[in-house]
Amino acid sequence: MLVIHVVVATIMSWWLGDLSASSWFLALAVCYPVFRVFGLFIPVCRLYARRIEVGAVFVPWYTWKVFAATWDVALIVLNPKRKVTSAVVKVPIKTRDRRMVTIIGCLLTLTPGTLALDYNEYEGDLYVHILDTASADPVFAAVAEIEQRLMAWVYPGGKA
């Protein structure tokens, strides 16, 4: 479905006489309602449209989380009186799909103040280094939320 979407958007932007990135993204956006309508009759189109919707929400949400974590780390670094004690915590992961665990680990590592270290696939635990143990509890909630949103994006029909 993605290939069809990209090809149709490229043809539309070429037909309009402008192959710039902005016209191509506009053509992608214009094609989306077509997939949504076809999704009423074709299940594959419905899943594809759902993936677009969840992905369109996930990307800005994650970007906001990165900026918020950057702000938190900046406050930690710029406060000379604050004592920082880092630690490695064991975070449970529900999914057993190694690809999803890898993506979750990468997203955690991209977030300032956290670093995914190791994954124990037998117990389903991800070991994460956190900058400040005062923020250990929010890490568990953040990892669970990243996992939930990522799984909803990758498996929009609920098949995990």
Radius of gyration: 20 Å
Q: Tell me how many strands there are.
A: 3
Residue share in helix: 55-70%
- Tally of individual helices: 5
Which percent band covers the strand fraction?
A: 5-15%
Report the average pLDDT across residues.
83
Query: Which residue ranges are poorly predicted, with pLDDT under 50 across at least 5 consecutive positions?
Result: none
Shape: elongated
The topology string of helices and strands comes to HHHEHEEH
Structural class: mainly alpha
Strand order of the largest sheet: 1-3-2
Task: Sketch the major β-sheet.
Answer: 3 strands, antiparallel
How far is the first residue's CA from the last residue's CA? 20 Å
Description:
The protein starts with a helix and ends in a 6-residue tail after the last helix. By secondary structure, the protein is mainly alpha-helical. A 3-stranded antiparallel sheet has the order 1-3-2. The protein has a domain at 60-154. It is built from 5 helices and 3 strands; from the N terminus they run H-H-H-E-H-E-E-H.
List the helices and strands and how they pair.
Layout: H1 2-15, H2 21-38, H3 43-78, E1 87-92, H4 98-110, E2 114-120, E3 125-130, H5 136-154
Antiparallel strand pairs: 1-3, 2-3
Helix pairs in contact: 1-2, 2-3, 3-5, 4-5
Which terms would index this structure?
160 residues; mainly alpha; 62% helix; elongated
